[in-house]
UniProtKB/TrEMBL annotation:
Catalytic reaction(s) noted: a 2-arylethylamine + acetyl-CoA = an N-acetyl-2-arylethylamine + CoA + H(+)
Enzyme Commission number(s) from the entry: 2.3.1.87
Organism: Mesembrinibis cayennensis
GO terms under cellular component: cytoplasm
A molecular function GO annotation: aralkylamine N-acetyltransferase activity
PROSITE patterns: GNAT
Family: Belongs to the acetyltransferase family. AANAT subfamily.
One of the GO biological process terms: response to light stimulus
Listed pathway(s): Aromatic compound metabolism; melatonin biosynthesis; melatonin from serotonin: step 1/2
Subcellular location as annotated: Cytoplasm
Keywords tagged on the record: Acyltransferase, Biological rhythms, Cytoplasm, Melatonin biosynthesis, Phosphoprotein, Transferase
Protein name, UniProt field: Serotonin N-acetyltransferase
EC primary class: transferase
N-acetyltransferase domain segment(s): 33-194
């Protein structure tokens, strides 16, 4: 069984009630809301959301399409997508890192023996913003990480204006990040991943 399949809080939410057609036959309905790990087949949908979310703000994307495919092939278990009726509306992509702080190499590498989960990107589709979906997805992602025995910390880098958002999600600022992208500078933040034994006893992890 995959780690994701063992987690009750990441299983699809209840289906909407089937609706009847005029002839009395039921129509097939997709889950109203579903959380699952992403696959390489989701890469284009991921990139479309990311491109719209980031290019207008910073002029570039944290991950380009080939990099999205790269991570979804190497470590799909460190991604999480939120789907509404089969449509991707928000996502997180992560990989493993094996040093205390992020470096330029962390932008493209996945370190299988690492214990820090580097969160590369969180993005929400433009029509679903200002609804709290980003913080809900992050909460579910951190709950998921608590059931991965190798995960000890979550790390990310963000611009100054996003620091309050991630602080509300439980992250603490570590100070300026050594990573730069063009003229952009970032703050590095971390969230400890705790409670492995408790989560295993109580959620089937």
């Amino acid at each position: 069984m995959s780690a994701l399949g063992a987690l009750p809080f990441l299983k699809p939410l209840p289906l909407r009630s089937p609706q009847s057609s005029p002839g009395g036959q039921r129509r097939h309905t997709l889950p109203a809301s579903e959380f699952r790990c992403l696959s390489p087949e989701d890469a284009v949908s991921v990139f479309e959301i990311e491109r719209e979310a980031f290019i207008s703000v910073s002029g570039d994307c944290p991950l380009h399409l080939d990099e999205i495919r790269h991570f979804l092939n190497l470590c799909p278990e460190l991604s999480l997508g939120w789907f509404e009726e089969g449509r991707l509306v928000a996502f997180i992509i992560g990989s493993l890192w094996d040093q205390d702080r992020l470096s330029q190499a962390a932008l493209t590498l996945h370190k299988p023996r690492g214990t820090a989960v580097h969160i590369h990107v969180l993005a929400v589709h433009r029509t679903f913003r200002q609804q709290g979906k980003g913080s809900i997805l992050m909460w579910r992602y951190l709950q998921y990480l608590r059931c991965l025995p190798f995960a000890r910390r979550a790390l990310l880098m963000c611009e100054d204006f996003l620091v309050p958002f991630y602080q509300k999600c439980g992250f603490e600022a570590l100070g300026p990040c050594e990573v730069t992208v063009g003229e952009l500078a970032f703050i590095e933040m971390q969230h400890p991943v705790r409670g492995h034994a408790f989560m295993r006893r109580n959620s089937g992890c």
